[in-house]
Design goal:
Blueprint lengths: L4 E5 L4 E6 L10 H15 L6 E6 L10 H5 L5 H20 L4 E5 L2 E3 L1 H7 L3 E5 L3 E3 L2 H4 L5 H11 L1 H10 L3 E2 H7 L4 E3 L3 H12 L4 H15 L3 H16 L2 H12 L9
Parallel strand pairs: 2-3, 3-4, 4-6, 5-7, 6-9
Antiparallel strand pairs: 1-2, 7-8
Length: 260
């Protein structure tokens, strides 16, 4: 795994994925994109993980793709396609995580970094967080799925402004527009971890089905995933967690879910 991606455990049920490349404002090269995808794929398969916080080392969330690394492949069509496929694999690995993913954003959240943030379920912005989507300033095209996620988060007009202008959006504006779920005057990472621990207390099957439904609806794919949602519902009906939830309700205590 790239040394730019670190995976740690905040608790038994909460994992933290940290982008660690401060000299590049946490911009990712091909190896780092691959490592990010592998990290999320591994965590998604770990039944003990109930929530994930995605963050960067202090000073930046992620400045997106390493533009110079990608530009070096200008005359290598196969290498460019491989690089692009690796980026898309990372995006989809974040989206596909069956547990809540929370972005803790401090400093720049730019381009591919903004896409990563959009792929998470919740975005917590620090006071110095700034968001921008600059492909129009680079002569590139923002991925269609990312455009759809941005428009769903902030509305079509605001999405067009960000895409057409490439201008940076400050933390307070991002919250007002819906790009960030909440802002904090303190430590975005600590706030995100507190939210993650809260989410980790819920029944995993219920959360997984709800996440699948909401994400599919946002991309107009609800019909595609309906059979999977129905299977999860049937599984939940027969689960030990449902019996535990009912017992806890009757006994007026907090449930202890195991994901089974």
């Amino acid at each position: 795994m790239s040394t730019f991606i670190r995976v740690t455990r905040h608790s038994a049920s909460c994992a933290v994925v940290t982008i660690d490349r401060p000299e590049k404002r946490n911009a990712l090269d091909e190896a780092a994109w691959r490592a990010l995808a592998e990290a999320f794929e591994t965590l998604s398969a770990d039944g003990a993980v109930r929530a994930i916080v995605l963050t960067g080392v202090p000073g930046a969330f992620c400045a997106g793709d390493d533009i110079l690394a990608f530009a070096a492949l200008r005359d290598d069509p196969q290498g460019r396609q491989r690089y692009w496929d690796t980026i898309m694999r990372a995006y989809r690995a974040v989206s596909a995580a069956p547990m809540p993913v929370i972005a803790a954003i401090e400093g720049p959240c730019i381009g591919g970094g903004c896409t990563l943030a959009l792929r998470t379920d919740f975005r917590i912005a620090g006071e110095r967080a700034v968001f921008a989507v600059p492909p129009a300033r680079l002569g590139l095209v923002y991925p269609a799925e990312s455009c759809a996620l941005l428009a769903d988060a902030v509305g079509t007009t605001m999405a067009k402004y960000m895409l057409y202008s490439g201008q940076k959006i400050p933390s307070a504006w991002a919250v007002a527009a819906g790009l960030a779920w909440a802002a904090t005057g303190g430590d975005a990472r600590a706030t995100a971890l507190a939210l993650a621990e809260e989410m980790a207390l819920s029944a995993p099957l219920s959360v997984r089905a709800s996440k699948l439904t909401c994400d599919a609806r946002a991309l107009g794919r609800l019909d595609e995933v309906m059979p999977q949602i129905e299977r999860l519902s049937e599984q939940a009906d027969q689960s030990a967690d449902y019996r535990e939830g009912a017992a806890a309700f009757a006994q007026k205590r907090k449930p202890r879910f195991t994901g089974t």
